[in-house]
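Fold this complex.
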Amino acid sequence: MKFLDSLVAGIEGSALAEWLRTTAGAIPIIEAAHVMGVALVFGTILIVDLRLLGIPNRRRSFVRTSNELLRYTWLGFGLAAVTGVLMFVANPATYVGNTLFWWKMAALLGAGVNMAVFELVTSRGVKSWDRDTRPPPAAVAAAVLSIVIWTSVVVLGRWVGFVPDYDFSIPEDVELEFVF
Amino acid sequence: MLEFAEWLQTTRLSVGLRAVDAWSIPVLQSIHILMIGVVFVSVLVVALRVLGRMRTDQPLPDVVSRFAPWLWGGLTVMLLTGALRGIAEPVRQVTTLSFWLKMALIVVGVVVAAAFQRSVRAKTASGAAVAPSGATKAFAGVTIVLWLAIIFLGRAIGYDYEIWGELSPVHAGSAE
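Structure:
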């Protein structure tokens, strides 16, 4: 953990971190951009997942539906990733000490694995179920899993901000004066 | 308005929402953010269709019908979660410029969306071809920016003074 501690201290003391913390408006603008990125990612992925589940129907080509949204998903993901890294850089210790933050990172990893499996394996035979046909169970499962994971990412992300890693214990070498 | 907010803050519902603060506020905000995704992307897809950049294989009225329930459903849930959030800490909301700007822009956004939907449906009913004019396309672009501004203002409520400086009523006149 010594390495991690020095890494955190290094990031926290960097010029960028200092600039982010002291520039008025920097953090709120970054956070707002993060929400915009998250909205793009979640909304576009939801359309694709629901299409796999046949909501509202299966009349439109899955490949076309998915492909034309993909660039917006990546745009949103890029925006969320860059702003997320900046939020981390500004206060790394808060995030490193926050269990929910690590759960969120794990959920993001899970979302990536789910997507990779779908892209590389499940969607190979997509031509046979591109429209008007029920996709194979693996594709339906990937869609359900994707909705569950991305919802968790958003919920965990919101929760991270509510569990700051504050240490309420009183340091031993501090003398307290109680004034009542 | 401040008197009303102060009274609201003392009501049982407000106190109750804050008492279970540990989970109620994050839950409400999480649902609110998920719905931002649903609403924003619904607006975005329809706007991009108007601009001829998405779903060009589908007629515009079909795209509008496809996303209208998601837009209105999502907005309703956002209104509910946002209202509960506001009831929990009303003074924090009404004393910010960001909150009022956000409310004003939401009204504009809702009116624009409803008017657009009506006009598309009226044209479809009359059998006229629905081909967006240049002005409609410009409007589609403005609508995307409008909803991005609403998202920004939602986040800005918590940082009102930092964003607006002296324009913010939060610390107006105080030394902070």
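The mean pLDDT of chain B is 90.
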